[in-house]
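Obj.: predict assembly geometry.
Materials: sequence records (below).
Method: joint structure prediction, all chains together.
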Amino acid sequence: MLQIRPIVTALRRHKAGTVLIALQIALTLAIVCNAFSIIQQRLQHLSQPTGIDEANIIVVQNEWARSMSTQQVDAQVNTDLEALRHLAGVRNAAISNAYPLRGNGWDDRIMLEPDQLKPTTSTALFFSDERLLDTLGVHLIAGRNFQPGEIKAMDVRDKLSPPSAIVTQALARHLFPDGSALGKSIYFGDAHPVAIIGIVDTLQPHSVDRWASGFASQTTILPSRLLSEWGNYYLIRTEPGQIDAVAAKVRQTLFAQDVMRVISDKDGIQKFPDIRQAAYDRDRGMAVLMGIVCVVLLSITAAGIVGLTSFWVGQRRKQIGVRRALGATRGDILNYFLTENLLISSGGALFGIVLAVGLNLWLVTRFEMQRLSLAYVLIGVVMLLLLGQGSVLAPAMRASKVPPVEATRSV
Amino acid sequence: MFGYYLDLALHSLKRNKVLTALMVVAIALGIGASMTTLTVLHVLSGDPLPGSSATLFNPRIDPFSMDGYEPNKPPPEQVTWTDGMNLLHAARADRQALMTGGAVPIQPTQSSIDPFYTDARYTTADFFPMFSVPFLYGRGWNASDDDGKARVVVISKLLNDKLFEGKDSTGQTLRMKDTSFQIVGVLGDWRVNPHFYDLNIGDYAEAEDVFVPLSTSRDMKLSLNGSTDCWGSGGDPEHAENTPCVWLQFWVQIVDPAKVEAYKTFLTHYSQEQKTLGRFEREPNVALLDVMQWLDYKKVVPSDVRLQTWLALGFLLVCLVNTVGLMLAKFLRRSGELGVRRALGASRRDVFMQLLIEAGVIGLAGGMGGLMLAYTGLWLVRRQPSSYASLAHLDMTMLLSTFLLALISTLCAGLLPAWRACQITPALQLKSQ
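Observations (raw structure tokens):
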């Protein structure tokens, strides 16, 4: 470390090269820190639990090929579900208009008073019956489930007026922070009170995208089979390990009940693990892309440092020879180049921290990103300093092998 | 002299293979990444109807009640049935169309094809001329078909291929929801990117397979698809004509730019009139954006794509700084050679030119590599499941831009090293030899 002053003096004579290495380190640090932050956010997003027994759930998108009245649809749905439940390996089956990660669905505003002008919050609405909780494997933590007698068949054209609702814990807490949600009434835009009779721990809404942040984790289950003339979703929960066997039998089973239906070959019958995979494809893609960007950037920076340092070593062979002749050990020479790189890298890193924070502030305002955590900046700095030392090692070793006799040679 | 310098450049590049390779790879990576993301951005932010997009407008009015009123909040993006019909029939623009998305069950007469659902658009007659929709066979329907709730349908080329093996099917029958429709037209290849006239279906959705008069769709209660935003007493799709809900898209064509303001004034007057009638509660709040303004307002280009583009440009910057450093090392290492050239009479300018040409050669090589990487990158993008994936192709503009970007950026990168190398005093170099 005693060599700092001569190093600084020497660096003054290589201003362009020094500034370039420092600048490259700074830019790399700025991009890599923010890329880390993006990776972390995306991974965190895609590992959010849905609250359901994902490994054993099959979603069937059943569409009707002819016109039917609500009563006809209701009767057919009952026949279908009964047939599905009797399949070997099926634990339960239910009808629903939505399921977690579906992408779109029905969301509505919730009021605490019937004449409230501004809604208290928003919620995703799942229309189903008393079998939904068991079918999805959602845990009821307070209150009770619906009873079969409470379930109504609702046409999509009917007015929304359920007597009761089961809500997620997140929604209950949002509506009643004092924890008294059970038994309270909520309103969906009119004077009709809806009683909260049960609370489940986690059940993600139909979308977890940014646009759905207004009702993140806030799901309400209503005791109505929402029957649409175009079709509905059947949710099936299988016994563990039976998902493939059951999925293979679903189409045949349903067509045996009625042939005037459409179940798309492409996505008519989906296993939930595939739904999850597809729902987070974009997040995963972004995380992988950022990972690649980091690796390539760091490699390029390392290559740049090796290239420039090699050049410096070549240029200074004579000086090194003189120092060796004057008694400097190989270790001293090695140390010289390592310290030189540490100085440049540190300078670059300092500037890089400023750039990283600046870039992050800009990203936050333009792309709704989270703030950069200091930990990532520190990890980035340590990484780049180590990278610099690693890259400079080979040229520095070569420098330390310059024999003292070099001092006597011209060039 | 150019040929000679090129020769020198190639010679010098060959002499230092590792350093040359490093520079070319760095440029190629930077260019490849930038061009991949820029191409995706270019495709996604393109004009869906070049030539006529500036004459197409999306009129918006605010029929909401005072619930949740916020001053300066933009009006809703869709219209109610009542307002849509009023504006359609007022016919104050050159052309106007009222529409919504839907899904219809198709029951093929061929026993070999199972019934299936497909996307539909319920619209009015002006849709086809207004959006310059190409026809392979037949034509669209006319206003009297709209009024008469005619059982007519226009189908896509894709559907025609599927059901009629691509033959002219006009005059034939298509069965949908137990009803026979007469096919009056088959579309040519048509896909607008983005799907600007109804973004609720998907920003980059493909064109619908079936087009039915809006009046017919309501008469037959065909199912709707898209976004419905209701207020007050809420929705009832059975009688959607009377509900306080916005669920229809309304587009107009105004060819003369001078008449755009007049149309906006008309919208304000209409809102005022509806307020006087007691239908509207809010003060007139109107908007009239053309296609590109509308896409901008709706932020159609995915923010992930924009983020990736910026990061790729940052990436390119790092690659360039890297190249500047390496080039500096390379050029200065040749001080001796350059000193001799200077001593033999080459001017600073000559040396500068020589070095810039060397940089240019690196840039072209990097551009070539970058192009290959961009092709690979775009191939990877197309394998993504997003709705726009299939659109990601390199066109001629982007191909030329790749080389231009590579060349310009490397020349810029070469400026500093070349300038530094020119500063070498020939005498000093020769002496130290």
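Conclusions so far: The first strand of chain B starts at residue 56 and ends at 60.
To do: check interface contacts against the pulldown list.
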